[in-house]
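can u do me a favor
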């Protein structure tokens, strides 16, 4: 009985001490990306709102850093004529809650800056993170997405 209590206590301590793993692996952003246009991210998840959620948070983070963005209505194929120097494109690869002993939010996406004139990718990054696990509910998908988008926006703003 004592052994079971010790094992249970050890398991709870391990679960409570799980740290977040986050990653933003990237190619260096070139100086002076100019005006950007966010193009609808491809959603490879089973969550229908994943693209809108990530793009909405990314837009706020980019704008808060003074990065010029063209209006969403002008983004896409007409971005070059709408005044965008680069298109920000991406793919949402993970956007879900992982269930097990605890619930944990998991978010991952790739992002790239593409020249509106040449179509050449000038910057790219892979962004992923997971929320802190908890028996009583950990971080939300929105909180994890915001953390990743802040890091991506920081790297893009360094190229202003």
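np, heres the sequence
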């Amino acid at each position: 009985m004592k052994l079971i209590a010790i094992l249970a206590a050890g398991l709870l301590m391990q679960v409570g001490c799980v740290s977040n793993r986050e990653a933003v692996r990237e190619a260096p952003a070139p100086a002076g990306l100019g005006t950007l246009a966010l193009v609808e991210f491809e959603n490879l998840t089973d969550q229908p709102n994943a693209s809108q959620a990530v793009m909405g948070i990314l837009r706020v983070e980019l704008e808060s850093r003074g990065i010029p963005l063209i209006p969403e209505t002008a983004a896409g194929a007409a971005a070059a004529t709408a005044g965008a120097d680069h298109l920000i494109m991406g793919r949402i690869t993970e956007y879900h809650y992982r269930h097990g002993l605890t619930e944990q939010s998991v978010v991952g996406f790739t992002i790239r800056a593409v020249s509106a004139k040449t179509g050449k990718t000038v910057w790219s990054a892979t962004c992923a993170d997971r929320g802190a696990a908890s028996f009583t509910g950990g971080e939300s998908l929105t909180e994890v997405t915001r953390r990743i988008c802040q890091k991506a926006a920081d790297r893009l703003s360094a190229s202003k």
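Strands lie at 22-26, 36-38, 42-43, 86-99, 103-115, 121-130. hope that helps!!
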